[in-house]
Every structure is written in C-alpha cells, then in structure tokens.
Amino acid sequence: MKLGLIALAAVALMGCGTNDAEAIRALDDHGFTAVTITDHGSIFAGWEGCGSEDANWYHASATNSAGKRVSMLVCCGGQLAFKGCTIRSK
Predict the structure, then answer these.
(1) Host domain of residue 55
(2) What is the pTM of this model?
(3) Edge-to-edge strands of the sheet including 85-89?
C-alpha cells in the first residue's frame, strides 16, 4: 500500500510544471517563429515519442527559417529531472 502511494506521488510530481512556455522558449531559441502549442501532457511521455527521462511533452507547429510551417514534438525533462527540452520532427 505504501509503495503504491509513493509511486503515485512520484508520477504526480513528474507532471508538475507542465508549462507551454518551456516548449515555446526551446523552439524560439532554435529560430522557430509563430509557435503554436496544439497539445501537451505530463504522463507517459514515452508513449508520445519522448525519451524515458522526459516528463512533459508538447505537440507544436511553427514556422522554420525557410518560411515553411512544420509540426514537431518537444520533449522536456520537467522540474525534477534537470534536463532541458529536445525538439523532434514528426
């Protein structure tokens, strides 16, 4: 019973801080403009295509340096993982 509560608390804490601003900042830092976050979540980031160390995922669309509108996945480590964000093309 205690182990289940600890696991539940760990999953809940992993999702803390899901904030579109972290994905937007990562995309902006890489030269993307007109960023729109279309979906996000903080549970089972691996199922969305992120790595096991990622806690948050964001589906986004933005304009690249060639002026083309593109869709991507942004995977972020969350507050407790001390990891930045990774941008993945779809």
Answers:
(1) 2-89
(2) 0.74
(3) 33-41, 56-63, 69-76, 85-89
